[in-house]
Design goal:
The complex is a heterotrimer of chains A (471), B (214) and C (259).
Chain A lengths: L1 H7 L3 H10 L3 H19 L6 H17 L1 H14 L3 E5 L2 H14 L4 E4 L3 H5 L2 H7 L3 E4 L2 H8 L16 H11 L8 H18 L2 E4 L3 E3 L4 E6 L3 H7 L3 E7 L3 E2 L2 H16 L6 E5 L13 E7 L3 H6 L13 H5 L1 H6 L10 H12 L6 H4 L6 H5 L6 H14 L5 H14 L2 H14 L7 E2 L7 H4 L4 E2 L6 H10 L1
Parallel strand pairs in A: 1-10, 2-3, 2-4, 4-7, 5-8, 7-10
Antiparallel strand pairs in A: 5-6, 6-9, 11-12
Chain B lengths: L5 H12 L24 H11 L3 E5 L5 H12 L3 E4 L7 H10 L3 E2 L7 H4 L2 E5 L2 E3 L4 E5 L14 E7 L3 E2 L2 H6 L8 E5 L4 E2 L7 E2 L6 E7 L1
Parallel strand pairs in B: 1-12, 2-3, 2-4, 4-7, 5-8, 7-12
Antiparallel strand pairs in B: 5-6, 6-9, 10-11
Helix pairs in contact in B: 3-4
Chain C lengths: L1 E4 L3 H6 L1 H13 L3 E3 L9 H5 L3 H14 L6 E3 L2 H10 L8 H12 L1 E3 H9 L9 E9 L12 H6 L3 E5 L15 H4 L1 H18 L3 E4 L2 H13 L5 E3 L1 H19 L8
Parallel strand pairs in C: 1-2, 1-3, 3-4, 5-6, 5-7, 7-8
Helix pairs in contact in C: 2-12, 5-6, 10-11
Classes of the chains: A alpha/beta (471), B alpha/beta (214), C alpha/beta (259).
């Protein structure tokens, strides 16, 4: 399915240019991300030792990943001990088949779904709908995305690319609500619509923020409460998790929870932290009769084996997106991926292949704001550099760039050649008598399209030094 | 294909890990993660965090004062029907009696749609966490999962001795015998999905009242 | 105390006056400055492009050129961060060179970092004045070397300088080395946003302490017809210290001599 899309999707630079040209987009994205960015900076100091807690979280994740085989077995055993069922999918097709099979077995007509980026990876909703099942996204942002046939643009707040007016027009068209830009009224309309779906759905699907091995628990967090509905009312519940979501024990979960909401939206804790350990027990007043966990690999084991293992620490908080100047400039859709932003620049090519996503690891100024924000200390700039090196070694770097740096290196290994290069540059400066170049030849034309280039200084410092040395 | 066997899946993972099993041990000391010390004023901290999480707080002297506090909440919201969970909490029977006497219809906790019909849901907190102002609700034979979710107003009875300082304390007491469901509630239901504008009361309760007893 | 000056290729080529100011400021504070003449570049452009082998070759040369034990001072935060953050890990298969890389990283400082964390001069001995309404761009690589508000606090020492923090002052200006050329549209949008924030705050001076950022932002300001001056804090310090010395000398004229 990805090949067919690649044929029709314009390349990254075109997508980015279009996003930049779209009126109001960068403004909306910047406003939303800045608010969350400031919120994180305000909240994290509450932890007393935010840097040490982040180091602790990173270490917990590294340990879990280094022993993931053991923890997966422990987790599965505990889920089953609670009466749940565990399924293993190495590919998206397998995961879809498992979940589709569960739905078919129970003759499911209506599914209510909580937010799950992993489910977007495998296009789960599309496949279930193709089977004739009604799948209702219940997170408000994802619900808006669904009824607009759009895609989320941020992994935590999916519709920051939409204005209230756009949402109002959408609700008018699809739900029949009279046009209003009052978010309370719009939300109430969604609440009414979805409440009935919650009441009558026969299956619930959720994602997984964390899976706790020692207790066989799936933990999901929401602010709205839709996650609790999806996993309490229907008779059958399926939790889909990427295998890297594992943590060993409850204290590990607590460390992650302390960091997650603060890093994400600047909240102390998400409103509902929902812990599910199997189906309802005998005597329980409610809860699902069947509880399934579907564990997905889809390239994560390959990442585990690679030099990019660190990216699997990610707890999907979105802090890096909120800090990233490139993301603020182009928004999420330009990445053409389930995971945009800095972490997306790494895991998208790792999960979906370098060919379609070659630009992503290159389209970063390596400013480091993401690394600074990350609650599990993923060194994204360093990993991006490694990935660029990896691309080069796999022959996916443009020959022009390889040649350019070969020449550059040759010059930089000799201060005389370096000085000669500077001299040559000064020759070119003759065409800019005013002191500024307004146009430059390829490849520097990309510079002068957007800004001027000053001429070089008449005398470089190394020549000035002669005078300074003796003064 | 319905997926692969557990053995095959885990074997692939084991091969991927290879010999890179550094970080052999879990970190020895989680102390740096503690935010609230047991020595501090944890009840005051809890109260401060409850309010900061946009919940309302009612402090009463003892179990005998609970019914009055709940009746006041009911009056505030014009409540005419309610579901009351059946787990033990101080003053529960007197509360039910007082509510009925005030003309409130107590719906059958077991009726499937009762939480959708009730104006108010009452549960007791199994625990409460001072660090975040969270109330811990554990569902089971006495407590409906959505009894604190589908209602527009949720009242949580929190006996003072059930407050623990920190999330680490909550976590340390949990083990392999987890219930099928436990929820940490830290405020009323909300969203900012529409252009980052805060709306309270999305799918869950719009109003959460914490009645702190003792 | 003696230091070695690492001028950096951009400063050497485009803003040599900045380096001259660094030298003069250090000398006024009693520090002797050496300039290893064979220096060229820290290798950042190659590193950022993933040309690790080219980077390693150039980094190895720099380690040779800056042999010794004196502190190395550079006016450019990004180059300093390359030496501190990437040199130590560039030679994992060559223990001897690795040790020398680690040693160099341990004695390389950004200019203000050197002043405020190592030298710690008594600034009250100087009458520092500079007339401007100034705003400040926080260059990205300062993050990696633990520099937060040292530059702003330095700016606030100047009498007559009104400091106004601009919006998103810590947001990347869009230089990123080859990024500015390879993803010109995105880079252009980022630097235009920076210019808009500079205009909005109403400053007449932008303090910018990295060669790449300055090249980028000054170029964008000029394209936008904005006449905000761009200066490195070393230039401000140099001017202010020179003026302070002059005033001191003038007021120290002995009795009986006509001024």
């Amino acid at each position: 399915m990805s090949d067919a899309r690649a044929a029709t999707v314009p390349d990254f630079r075109t997508r980015a240019a279009r996003a930049i040209a779209e009126p109001g987009l960068s403004q909306a994205v910047t406003s939303a991300t800045l608010r969350q960015y400031e919120g994180r900076k305000r909240m994290l100091p509450e932890l007393g030792h935010p840097l040490e807690i982040r180091d602790l979280a990173a270490r917990i994740k590294d340990h879990t990943l280094a022993h993931l085989d053991r923890y997966l077995a422990i987790f599965a055993e505990n889920v089953r001990r609670h009466g749940g069922q565990v399924h293993f999918a190495q590919t998206p097709d397998q995961a879809v088949e498992i979940i589709g099979g569960i739905a078919r077995r129970h003759q499911v007509r209506r599914i209510v779904k909580a937010k799950s980026m992993t489910s977007e990876e495998i296009h789960l909703t599309e496949h279930l709908e193709a089977d004739g099942i009604e799948v209702v996204e219940t997170d408000l942002g994802e619900f808006i995305v669904q009824i607009d046939h759009d895609r989320p643009s941020h992994i935590v707040t999916p519709v920051i690319h939409k204005t209230t007016g756009q949402i109002a027009r959408l609700f008018e068209r699809v739900l029949g609500t009279p046009y209003t830009e009052d978010p309370e009224v719009l939300t109430a309309a969604a609440r009414r619509h979805l409440r009935e779906k919650f009441r009558t759905a026969d299956m619930g699907i959720c994602g997984c923020n964390f899976a706790v091995a020692e207790t066989g628990t799936v933990c999901i967090v929401t602010n709205e409460g839709n996650g609790r509905y999806c996993t309490s009312r229907p008779k059958v519940v399926v939790a889909l998790m990427g295998m890297e979501k594992m943590v060993p024990s409850m204290p590990d979960l607590a460390v992650m929870l302390k960091l997650l909401a603060k890093s994400s939206t600047g909240q102390r804790l998400t409103v509902y932290t929902n812990l599910m350990s199997g189906p309802r027990r005998p005597g329980d007043l409610d809860g699902p009769e069947e509880f399934h966990v579907v564990i997905l690999d889809r390239g994560r084991s390959r990442i585990l084996a690679s030099e990019f293992r660190e990216t699997l620490r990610c707890i999907r908080c979105g802090a890096c997106l909120n800090a990233c100047p490139v993301y603020r400039t182009i928004g999420g859709h330009a990445y053409n991926s389930v995971y945009p932003g800095p972490i997306g620049k790494l895991i998208t090519p790792l999960l979906a292949g370098y060919d379609e996503y070659k630009d992503l690891p290159n389209a970063s100024s390596l400013c480091g704001a993401c690394f600074e924000a990350c609650p599990v200390r993923i060194d994204i700039p360093m990993l991006l550099i490694r990935m660029r090196d990896d691309l080069r070694r796999q022959g996916k770097m443009h020959w022009f760039q390889r040649l350019a740096f070969r020449i550059w290196r040759w010059m930089m290994l000799s201060h005389r050649l370096y000085a000669l290069g500077g001299g040559a540059g000064r020759l070119w400066d003759w065409v800019a008598p005013g002191g500024w170049h307004r146009r430059a030849p390829f490849p520097f034309s990309a510079w002068t399209r957007h800004r001027d280039l000053p001429v070089m200084a008449r005398r470089p410092f190394r020549k000035m030094w002669k005078d300074l040395e003796n003064s | 294909m319905s997926g692969v066997s557990q053995e095959e899946f885990i074997r692939t993972v084991r091969e991927a890990i290879g010999t890179r099993r550094d970080v052999a041990e879990r970190p020895a000391d989680y102390g740096v993660a503690r935010v609230v010390s047991p020595d501090g004023p944890i009840v005051e901290k809890f109260c401060e965090m409850v309010l900061d999480a946009r919940m309302q707080l009612h402090r009463v002297g003892g179990p005998a004062d609970v019914p009055a506090a709940v009746l006041a909440i009911m009056k505030q919201h014009g409540v005419r029907s309610a579901i009351v969970s059946e787990e033990a909490f101080p003053g529960r029977e007197a509360l039910r009696a007082a509510m009925e006497a005030a003309g409130c219809e107590l719906l059958d906790l077991r009726a499937p749609d009762a939480p959708f019909e009730a104006d108010l849901g009452i549960t007791a907190a199994r625990l409460a966490i001072a660090e975040t102002g969270s109330i811990v609700v554990r569902s089971g034979p006495d407590v409906r999962r959505i009894g604190s979710l589908a209602v527009p107003v949720h009242v949580s009875i929190v006996p003072r001795e059930r407050i623990v300082p920190d999330l680490m304390d909550w976590a340390a007491a949990l083990g392999p015998d987890m219930p099928s469901n436990e929820v940490l509630i830290t405020g009323p239901s909300k969203t900012s999905d529409i252009e980052m504008k805060l709306v309270v009361g999305v799918h869950g309760p719009r109003h959460v009242h914490v009645v702190l007893v003792g | 105390m003696r230091v070695q000056l690492f001028v950096t290729c951009l400063t050497d080529t485009y803003f040599p006056d900045v380096a001259a100011c660094v030298v003069r400021v250090l000398r006024r504070l009693g520090v002797e400055v050496d300039f290893p003449k064979r220096q060229t570049c820290c290798g950042q452009p190659a590193l950022n492009s993933g040309c690790m082998h080219d980077f390693r070759a150039v980094a190895a040369r720099m380690i040779d050129v800056f042999e010794g034990s004196d502190p190395v001072v550079t006016p450019s935060g990004s180059c300093c961060s390359i030496v501190r953050e990437y040199f130590p890990h560039a030679f994992d298969d060559d223990p001897v060179r690795r040790a020398r890389a680690v040693a160099l990283a341990g004695r390389t400082y950004e200019f203000i970092e050197f002043l405020e964390k190592k030298l710690r001069p008594d600034w009250s001995a100087w009458d520092l004045r500079f007339d401007a309404v100034a705003t400040y761009h926080y260059s990205c690589h300062l993050r990696g070397i633990g520099i937060t508000d040292e530059h702003v606090r330095m700016l606030q020492r100047f009498r007559g300088l009104e400091y106004r923090p601009m919006e998103k002052m810590d947001q990347c200006c869009g230089f990123g080395g080859t990024f500015a050329v390879k993803y010109g549209d995105i880079s252009g949008a980022m630097v235009r946003d920076k210019v808009a924030n500079i205009r909005k705050i109403g400053a007449n001076l932008l303090v910018c302490n990295d060669g790449g950022c300055t090249l980028n932002i000054a170029g964008a300001l000029h394209r936008d017809g904005c006449d905000v001056r761009v200066m490195h804090i070393a230039q401000i310090l140099d001017q202010a210290m020179a003026a302070s010395e002059k005033r001191r000398a003038a007021s120290a004229v002995p009795q009986g001599v006509q001024p």
